[in-house]
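Reopening this ticket.

The earlier resolution said the output was attached, but the attachment link was broken on my side. Pasting everything inline this time so it's all in one place.
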Amino acid sequence: MLIVSYDFENDKTRTKFARFLEKYGNRIQYSVWQVRDSERVLQNILTEVELRYQKKFSNADSIYIFRLCEGCKKKVKRYGYAKHEESDLIYIS
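Inline output:
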């Protein structure tokens, strides 16, 4: 699992980055996303940041990408709505 957190001073840049991340994961807080962990996804995100966003950074902008190992993923505690995100969904018609 990847956790991507960002803060952009510019609203337009912030919105574009959020729309970009929608392709890869789910928003868990306003500027925090849970993203599928694969080398391809990570490389796509890093490339996008370096080619499109890094040159626009001001001193107030930041992006953090945390990669959680399998052991760390098991230590994540979820409450409320988040508790059910990892559950399998069964659909009966």
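Reporter confirms the inline version is readable. Residues 39-53 form the longest helix (15 residues). The helical segments are 11-21, 39-53, 70-74.
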